[in-house]
Write a structure and sequence with these properties.
The complex is a heterodimer of chains A (about 325) and B (about 325). Chain A is an all-alpha fold. Chain A has one domain: MetI-like fold (Orthogonal Bundle). Helix content of chain A is about 65%, strand content about 0%. In chain A, α6 packs across α10. Chain B is mostly helical. Chain B has two domains: about 70 residues, no CATH class; about 230 residues, MetI-like fold. The two termini of chain B are about 15 Å apart. The chains are: A mainly alpha (about 325), B mainly alpha (about 325). At the A-B interface, α3, α5, α6, α10 and α11 of A face α2, α7, α8, α11 and α12 of B.
Chain lengths: ~325, ~325
């Protein structure tokens, strides 16, 4: 999460503002913009726990296949073996290694989270920034549209879409992406509205910067931390919905879904607890990690927002 | 609450409903597979195809087809279940009471217990307690509903035997009167508690944060200075702290129904969830569509109610000021 704002070069107006001696106090960055440094996320115990959980889930998903191999559906041992040294999480009813399946299930969840956040993020930033920078009828129209999308129950729509178009991960990502942007868009809009009046934006405008430039270089960057918090909510929601789809038997049959694993475990609830415990725990670690990191990012943001406001150079 | 607000808010419902219907129609239309092949088979001759096209209106221009679809849906005709051979809407309607019973019980649990625990958690103050309340509520909130349900069945029903494992009634006994109500309640308790858990955790957080913020506010200081008794002060603060609880409820009602459906599957609760599971397995599209439309309608209604409740709770809110 750290390098989000670091990657953006310092815009001219801020350089000018700094040259004129308008310098930010310590909570804001040297560029007069908020910065998501590592310490901000790691400032609270919750944030530390979140980073640890998220890193372990992502690490397991990315590096796990090196250890467990990439054939999650292969039958490798006797069926329904309890956890042992050879099979740390036991085996399922077809003799498949649960650890291997959990690792690959995490990969699926991660693909869903990243894909949905990418699509939803782009839509949200476009809609939000457009609405926020054009108060009046365009704003009205976009916000009414946002409200319309917001009330659609995503899981149930996803069930219909998967039944109609097939249970492919790409379908799920696309559907959740185009329906999950509403909250982020509202937040981006609100931030854009308030940022328009800020000194550094007016300064940029006075230097002759165009609307698009200001949106891209100032507003977009300043809105990012808040948008990230909302997108973390969107990511954990998407992971949960995909798991839910898997649980009702609508997961992509070509990949492992943590939800399908839990659904399969339902039949052996009494005899093989490990089939239930591990896939669910993996989901919990991923979702809790995302939520805690989002929470910590939000705290870091609101601490900065304080009385002076986000990214103010006053 | 002004009549004008009520009217304007009511006027927002039809466009949302229309959008949802148009989207479902578009999805049906865009889905791969020719409905004609599905209806008339792969090897029909051209005359037969033409007759079938005419009979099902597939020869009409698209706007006409959309209008027919909207007309049918508004008359409650959501098609016939492929599997059950009965109108899809009535198939869903007969499962609805069980789901509503489960969802409303869970809602009452998550609100009452959540607010009460939130008040208690606020008493703990900030600092060290802050971390433990945060992490524990977020953990509960992050637990997938179906997983929590499975763990509850494993621990509380199988191991300890405190609750029945599944179903809504005990099939081995035929009960009547109060005993039957008690039996349903006994079966209801565990699934309702599991479904309530996530929202409960969220409510604890919201109420606690609201109360801690209120404790620093002028109106609470004034009330204390006037010598108001503790419960009066709490009432004042709680009324404000309840606002986010109501808002979040409106926003999360869709996820709440999702949770209900998944919990039902684990507990074999005879509601919409079980229906969704079996219909998904048999790809019974009319039923899946009917479930979606019914839930979408319910979300619209709940959102409307939440908004109206919100204006009652906070008289400062008017239509113009809200956003």
């Amino acid at each position: 999460m750290r390098p989000v704002t670091d990657a953006v070069p310092a815009p001219a107006a801020d350089v000018a503002a700094r040259a004129a001696g308008v310098r930010a106090a310590s909570p804001t960055s040297r560029r007069g913009r908020p910065e998501l440094r590592r310490p901000a996320v790691l400032a609270t115990p919750g944030g530390v726990l979140g980073v640890v959980l998220l890193t372990s889930a992502v690490g397991l998903a990315l590096l796990g296949p090196v250890v467990v191999g990439d054939r999650p559906f292969a039958s490798v041992a006797a069926p329904l073996q309890a956890p042992s040294a050879a099979h740390v999480m036991g085996t399922d009813d077809l003799g498949r290694d649960v650890l291997t399946m959990v690792v690959h299930g995490l990969r699926t969840s991660l693909v869903i989270a990243v894909g949905v956040v990418a699509i939803a993020g782009v839509i949200a930033v476009c809609v939000g920034a457009l609405a926020g920078s054009h108060p009046g009828s365009l704003d009205d129209l976009l916000m009414r549209g946002t409200e319309l999308v917001q009330v659609v129950p995503r899981f149930f729509l996803a069930v219909v879409v998967v039944a109609l178009f097939g249970a492919r991960v790409s379908n799920v990502v696309l559907l959740l992406g185009v329906t999950s942007w509403t909250w982020t868009a509202r937040v981006v809009r609100a931030e854009t509205l308030s940022l328009r009046q800020r000194a550094f934006v007016e300064a940029a405008r006075s230097f002759g910067a165009g609307q698009t430039y200001i949106l891209r270089r100032h507003i977009a960057v300043s809105v990012l931390p808040t948008a990230l918090v909302m997108l973390s909510v969107c990511a954990s929601g998407a992971v949960l919905i995909e798991a839910g789809l898997g649980f009702v038997g609508l997961g992509d049959p070509d990949v492992v879904s943590l939800g399908s694993l839990a659904s399969n475990a339902q039949r052996f609830l009494r005899s093989a607890w490990w089939l239930t415990l591990f896939p669910g725990a993996a989901l919990l670690i991923l979702i809790l990690g995302i939520n805690l990191v989002g929470d910590a990012l939000g705290d870091a943001g609101s601490a900065r927002l304080g009385p002076v406001g986000l990214g103010s150079t006053r | 609450m002004s009549a004008r607000y009520l009217l304007r808010r009511l006027a927002q419902v039809p466009p949302s409903a229309l959008l949802i219907l148009v989207v479902t129609w578009l999805l049906l239309h865009l889905a791969p597979g020719d409905p004609l092949i599905a209806l008339a088979g792969q090897y029909g001759d051209e005359a037969y195809y033409t007759a079938m096209r005419e009979r099902f209106g597939l020869d009409q221009p698209l706007p006409q087809q959309l209008a027919t679809y909207l007309g049918n849906v508004l008359q409650g005709d959501l098609g016939t279940s492929y599997v059950r051979g009965r109108p899809a809407l009535s198939v869903v309607a007969e499962r609805l009471p069980a789901t509503l019973l489960l969802a409303s019980t869970a809602l009452v649990l998550s609100t009452t217990v959540g607010v009460a625990l939130g008040v208690l958690a606020a008493r703990l103050g900030g600092g060290r307690a802050d971390v433990s309340v945060r992490v524990s509520t977020l953990t509960l909130y992050a637990m997938p509903a179906f997983w929590l349900a499975q763990l509850a069945v494993l621990g509380l029903a199988y191991r300890l035997g405190w609750f029945p494992i599944q179903g809504m009634t005990d099939a081995r006994r035929s009960l009547s009167g109060l005993a039957a109500v008690g039996d349903v309640f006994h079966h209801l308790l565990l699934p309702a508690a599991v479904l309530a858990a996530g929202e409960l955790a969220l409510n604890v957080r919201l109420v606690r944060t609201g109360l801690l913020e209120a404790a620093r506010s002028d109106y609470v200081r004034t009330a204390r200075a006037k010598g108001a008794p503790g419960h009066r002060v709490l009432y004042h603060a709680l009324r404000n702290a309840m606002l986010p609880v109501v808002t979040v409820l409106g926003n999360r009602i869709g996820m709440f129904f999702t949770g209900a459906v998944l919990v039902e599957v684990v507990f074999a609760w005879p509601g919409v969830g079980r229906l969704l599971l079996t219909s998904a397995q048999s790809r019974d599209l009319p039923v899946l569509l009917a479930v979606f439309l019914v839930v979408a309608g319910a979300v619209l209604v709940v959102n409307l109610l939440v908004d109206l409740l919100y204006t009652r709770l906070d008289p400062r809110i008017s239509y113009a000021a809200r956003d």
